[in-house]
Amino acid sequence: MPRPASTLEDTTAFIGGGNMARSLVGGMVARGADPAAIHVAEPVDALREALARDFGVRVHADAGDAVAGAGTWVFAVKPQVMRTVCEGLAARAGDARPLAVSIAAGITTAQLSAWLGGDAAVVRAMPNTPALLGAGVTGLYANAAVDAAGRERAASLLSATGETVWIADEALMDAVTAVSGSGPAYVFLLAEAMEDAARAQGLPADAARTLVTQTLLGAARMLTEAGEPPAGLRRRVTSPGGTTQAAIEAFEAGGLRTLVAEAIAAATLRGRELSAAND
Ligand SMILES: NC(=O)C1=CN([C@@H]2O[C@H](COP(=O)(O)OP(=O)(O)OC[C@H]3O[C@@H](n4cnc5c(N)ncnc54)[C@H](O)[C@@H]3O)[C@@H](O)[C@H]2O)C=CC1
Ligand SMILES: O=C(O)[C@@H]1CCC=N1
Fold first, then answer.
1. Which of 1, 78, 109, 137 has the fewest CB atoms found within 10 Å of its own CB?
2. Where in this chain does the record put each Pyrroline-5-carboxylate reductase catalytic N-terminal domain (predicted)?
3. Ligand 2, closest atom to CA 274?
């Protein structure tokens, strides 16, 4: 059924309705976006139905149906299928000239533009899953075909889910992916390790869960609200000769900083490999 003309430019189509699209859609709707102006293409029935049920957005099995009349197309499929998905929509993109926003790790704006038929306006965005709570952060890079209105549209879409940071050099988007795109998983890994250690010290599981999660929440709030760099906050917890110092010395002796640097370098490299593997 044709959509009313008033919704056309303002409509956002998601191609892919998996984990990250769900976080973005949930964040947008929670912050007042009109669900009727969000269309999602997702081939998996259960995911599609859950998006419609939970957020009231319009869902489609077919990407062509989702993008019809939408001014912004958000590509939220895995890097490995991005080329096929874009090429399948290239003819429509040539006619509609949408703003294309990709959230895929590794895939470059040059690849996306070429797969969409050439000279497409493409924003490469790297959000993260706290977007669902409006607590995300997104790195953004726009190719030369994106005008000021397109940059504004992309930033406004992603800012519904948290902070946005424009990145001037696209080569740095793989580092953004490694730091903030993947970053929530590092914190969850730390939480797992702290809970395991708490239980190993004899704490009951439910107490360990509460102690760890509230500690991470409180520390994250201090990082964002105290206006002080992390090293200063750490020093103020660390009494000379006290318990924290004993733990910090164990972390440093175990090479925590080197390990974190190696992990982020590995993720950055993987982003570059995803680009090369899908060329
Ligand atoms: N999960 C995360 O924390 C983040 C993921 N990303 C990026 O987001 C993208 C999606 O990742 P996830 O949501 O984690 O993966 P996912 O696998 O949960 O979602 C991808 C969805 O695309 C659907 N799909 C496959 N072919 C399709 C087609 N032809 N048309 C429409 N939908 C199709 C799949 O059924 C699946 O539900 C990836 O490119 C990833 O690099 C970016 C930032 C963070
Ligand atoms: O693991 C991945 O490849 C995606 C990109 C950033 C977070 N998840």
1. 1
2. 13-106
3. 3
Q: Which of 81, 182, 186, 264 to mutate to test the pocket of ligand 2 (most atoms within 8 A of CB)?
A: 182
List every span in the chain annotated with CATH 3.40.50.720: 5-173
- Is the ipTM higher than 0.95? The answer is yes
Cβ(60)–Cβ(36) below 8 Å: no
Counting ligands in written order, which one lies closest to the CA of residue 105?
A: 1
E strand intervals along 121-212 = 121-126, 136-142, 162-166
CA dihedral 164, 165, 171, 176 (to 10 degrees): -70
Look up residue 221 and give its amino acid: R
> Is 19's C-beta closer than 6 angstroms to any atom of ligand 1?
yes
Going by alpha carbons, the residue nearest to atom 5 of ligand 2 is 105
Task: Please indicate whether residue 161, judged by its CB atom, sits closer than 6 Å to ligand 2.
Answer: no
Q: What is the largest CA-CA distance in the chain?
A: 71
Residue 177 Cβ inside 6 Å of ligand 2? The answer reads: yes
For domain 183-274, the CATH architecture is Orthogonal Bundle (1.10)
* Best residue among 78, 180, 270 to mutate for probing ligand 1, ranked by most atoms within 8 Å of CB: 78
Burial 85-110 (b: 16+ CB within 10 A, else e): bbeebeebbeeeebbbbbbbbbbbbe
Report the candidate in 224, 221, 259, 252 with the shortest Cα–Cα distance to residue 238: 252
Instruction: Place domain 5-173 in its CATH homologous superfamily.
Output: NAD(P)-binding Rossmann-like Domain (3.40.50.720)
Instruction: Provide the pLDDT for residue 227.
Output: 92
Q: Is the CB of 181 under 6 A from ligand 2?
A: yes
